[in-house]
Amino acid sequence: MAETIRINTEEYNEEFSRKLKVGDSVLITGKIYSARDAAHKVMTEALARGEKLPIDWTNKFVYYLGPTPAKPGDPIGSAGPTTSGRMDAYTPTMLDQGIKGMIGKGSRKPAVVESMKKNGCTYFAAVGGAAALIAKSIKKYEVLAYGELGPEALAELTVEDFPCIVVGDTEGNNFYEEGQKPYRKI
């Protein structure tokens, strides 16, 4: 079994992203940003109007997340991934803003895969169904913009050893397909 790759978001860039391959197990530490389909829609509409976004997405991670309310003393409630395909209509535009890591679950459309290859962005899967466990790696959660969207707002998360698997690399490989190959019978 391959060794787990540690990623510090402050040092993450396109060069690092292009070295990752499907099946790599990673632990992410640093700042990541959550946004779901409603926030993506607002951001792509703002870009179409020529407006500046609330954050500079260069070399950043986006986590497709809709958290539950936090219990007293916790920074966040359950924090499992949202199905990434919900963002596919907006993803190429957002990747053009400099995003180098996406975290979610599920397969992506061909246009997204092509944009990942073009922009040097890696797609990571967080484990669905383990939302309470994932929340333990989130140390801070702060809404930055679009608070009216509730759990779909743009937020900054500080994470420590956030577990993911590379499911889409910058060469267009898909772990959802590659990982099944050894088990298929023809």
Could you describe the 3D structure shown?
It is a single chain. This protein is of the alpha/beta class. The relative contact order is 0.23. A five-stranded mixed beta barrel has the order 2-3-4-5-7. The protein is built from six helices and seven strands, in the order E-H-E-H-E-H-E-H-E-H-E-E-H. It has helices spanning about 15-20, 35-50, 90-95, 110-120, 130-135, 175-180; strands at about 5-10, 25-35, 60-65, 100-105, 120-125, 140-145, 155-170. Helix 4 (about 110-120) links the parallel strand 4 (about 100-105) and strand 5 (about 120-125). The chain is globular and about 50 Å long. Pfam families: Fumerase_C. Keywords: Lyase. Belongs to the class-I fumarase family. This is Fumarate hydratase. It comes from Veillonella rogosae JCM 15642.
Percent strand equals 25-35%
Overall average pLDDT: 94
Structural class: alpha/beta
Shape: globular
Which residues form runs of ≥5 with pLDDT under 50?
A: none
Rg (C-alpha, Å): 16 Å
Strands ordered across the widest β-sheet? 2-3-4-5-7
Largest sheet: 5 strands, mixed, barrel
**Distance from first to last alpha carbon:** 27 Å
Count every helix, treating DSSP H or I runs of 4 or more residues as helices: 6
Helix-strand sequence: EHEHEHEHEHEEH
Q: Give the proportion of residues in helices.
A: 10-25%
The number of E-state strands comes to 7
